[in-house]
Amino acid sequence: MNNTKRIFTVAITGASGAVYGIRVVQQLLKADCRVHLLISEAGWEVFRLEMELDTSDRQACLNGLFGDYDEKDLLIHGLRDFTAPIASGSYKTEAMIIVPCSMGTLSKISNGNSGSLLERAADVILKERRRLVIVPRETPLNGIHLENLVRAERAGAHIVPAMPGFYHLPKSMDDLINFVAGKVLDSVHVEHTLFARWGEKR
């Protein structure tokens, strides 16, 4: 196993916009990173309902999304697997990205409720002072949502809302998805060419 790879954790929850998480994982693998992937049960449901994916065979679904990936570079963990490396601060992940992040997941993280591996991994990232990127996908936001976002940010999280820009003149849904995924990758300093930056030729 190549120990020089950059290591990330990515969590996909049940908020709308699972496609953002999929695109981020695809790009991390393309950048030769190692990814620990967590998908909540609600996240799998979003795959089925929002993306019309066949999730009856979850492994086949992942193969379809991420191609012929090396199992050493994409590690899938169940949410009850507290023996996973990412449950411990001694395991050197560079950052964790929750994309999209539901308001329920945000609430648990911002209040230190580590009831699953997802929340435990996020808690580990925060306590070790590493980069936690939260990509909330909800609208409108109520006061509780806003307070939880502030609590998470004050604890060290980086908030990257799923708000696509339009200055790059998107021509398709894919352009909008790539913009958000690209901003997420920017937040963890992973190079990509998903969108034209301001001042670049389109």
UniProtKB/TrEMBL annotation:
| Record-listed FMN binding positions | G14, A15, S16, S40, S102, M103, G104, T105, R137
What's the domain of life for this entry? Bacteria
Reaction it catalyzes: dimethylallyl phosphate + FMNH2 = prenylated FMNH2 + phosphate
Question: What are the binding positions for dimethylallyl phosphate in this chain?
Answer: Y167, K183
Family annotation (InterPro entries) = Flavin_trans-like, Flavoprotein, UbiX-like
Q: What is its EC number?
A: 2.5.1.129
Top-level enzyme category: transferase
Keyword annotations from UniProtKB, A to Z: Flavoprotein, FMN, Prenyltransferase, Transferase
Q: Name one Pfam family in it.
A: Flavoprotein
Q: Which Gene Ontology molecular function entries are recorded, alphabetically?
A: flavin prenyltransferase activity
Task: Describe the task this protein carries out.
Answer: Flavin prenyltransferase that catalyzes the synthesis of the prenylated FMN cofactor (prenyl-FMN) for 4-hydroxy-3-polyprenylbenzoic acid decarboxylase UbiD. The prenyltransferase is metal-independent and links a dimethylallyl moiety from dimethylallyl monophosphate (DMAP) to the flavin N5 and C6 atoms of FMN.
Family membership: Belongs to the UbiX/PAD1 family.
Protein name in the entry:
Flavin prenyltransferase UbiX
Q: Which gene specifies this protein's sequence?
A: ubiX
